[in-house]
Predict the 3D structure of the following.
Amino acid sequence: MPFITEDFLLHNPAAKRLYRTFAEGEPILDYHCHLSPASIAQNRQFQNLFEIWLEGDHYKWRAMRANGVDERYCTGDASPFEKFLAWAGAVPHTLRNPLYHWTHLELQRYFGIDELLDEHSAKRIWERANALLATDELRAHGILKRFRVAALCTTDDPADDLSCHQAIRASGCAARVFPAFRPDKALNVHLPDAFNTWVDRLAAASSVDIGSLQDFTDALRQRHDAFHAMGARLSDHGLNHCYADFCSAGTAAVIFDRARQAQPASAEDHKRFASYMMLFFGHLDAEKGWTKQLHLGAYRNANTRRLQQIGPDCGFDSIGDWPQANALGAYLDRLEMENALPKMILYNVNPVDNYTLATMIGNFQDGKIAGKIQFGSGWWYLDQQEGMEWQINALSNTGLLSRFVGMLTDSRSFMSYPRHEYFRRVLCNLIGRDIEDGLIPDSDTLVGPMIRNICYRNAQQYLGLDIQAGLGASQ
C-alpha cells in the first residue's frame, strides 16, 4: 500500500465526506508566495528534480545540515544529482517532520511516484521525475493549470519595474498573476549603504529624483499606483514586531536626510522612522482598498558567520520572542483613528502569540467588511499539521472561522501546491472530528459551505483581485 493514500490525514467518515464533497474540487488562490515572476513569464522548463525541488529550499537545507550533510550539498558547488542524492539520504531521518509528508505528497501529485525516497530509490526517482519534467505539463504554466491555480500573488519590491508581470500578461498563462507590494527596504535607515543603493533604484523605477523625504514618499506612492495598475491589491511587510514610536514628518525628514548622508540611524530613530513609514503605507493601502499583510516575529540571520559566507534566506532563521500586543495594538489603533485602517491579515511565527493575534483582530472589525482583520494561516514553522490546527483552534475559539481566508504557499517552489491539499485535509479532519464528537451538527448544508469558503471563496471575495471566473469552481 502506498504511504500517501486517498484517506491521508482523514481519520473519520465525516472528514472524508467533507474533503471529497466540499474541499478537494475547489481552485487555488495562492495570495502570498515567493515564486519568480521571471520563471512564470518564461514558462520555465525545469531541467531536473533539483531545479524544481531543491533550488533555494531552506527547509530542506536545515534538515540536511541537521543530518550532518556538508554545506557543499546544500548551497555549495556539488552537482544537481549529488545534491539530490544527499537530500534523498536525509529523507528517512525526517520522520515526524512535515518534510516527510510534503516530500511524498509532492512526489505522488507531480510524478505519480508512490515509492519512498531514500538513497536506494533516489536514482530511479530522479530519472522518472526528470523524464516527466521534460513535458509541457510540468513547465511553469502547466503546473499552475494542473493544480487549478486561479490566481497567485508574487512578492515584489517597489523598485522592481514589473516588466516580468507585463510579460506574464502576454505569455498565455491561464492563471492570473499579480504583484504584491513589499517595501521592507524602505525602513532601513539604520543601514545607510544598503538603504541608499535601494533608494537610487527606487528613484530610477519611479522617475522621481529623491532628494527629500517628500520625494521619497512621492516615489513610493508612484510605485504603489503602478502596482495597482498591474492588478495588485495586496501589500506585505516582514517585521520582527510592529512599530509604534510615532513621530512628526519633520523628525522623519531629519532621520531620512542623515541616512542619505550615510549616517546610520540609532535604534530609537530607526523605530521612529519605521513607525512613520508604516503609517504612510497604511494610508496608501486604505486609499485603494488593498489588503495589508503583516508577517510578525521571525528571528532572522541568527548565524553571522553563515550570513557572511552564504547570505540571507538560507535556513539560519528561527522563531523570535518579541512582545507583540502593545505595538501591534497601537499601530492598528493609530490607523483606525486616522480613518486609514485597511483590510489586514496578521501572521505570526511564534505559537505563543496565537491567542494574542486571534483576539487582537476582534478589536478592529468594523461591522461593514466581514472578517476585515484576519488572523492568517499558520506561517513558516507553523505551516504544518499541528501549527495549522493551533491557528484554526485559536481563531475558532475567539472569532469566526467561517470568515477565514484560508491557505497560501508562502513558497519559492513550484512544487509546493500540494500544501493547499494538505491544509484542506487538516481542516476537514479537524471539523470532521468535531462532528463525530457531537460538537457541531452533522449537517452538510451548514458545514459544507464553510469548508468551501475557507478553501477558496472567502479569499476570492475578500481580496478583490480581478480573477477570471471558471477554472472549475463548484457552484
Notes: Residues 469-475 have pLDDT under 50 and may be disordered. Residues 267-288 form the longest helix (22 residues). Residues 347 and 368 are 22 Å apart (CA to CA). The first strand starts at residue 28 and ends at 30.
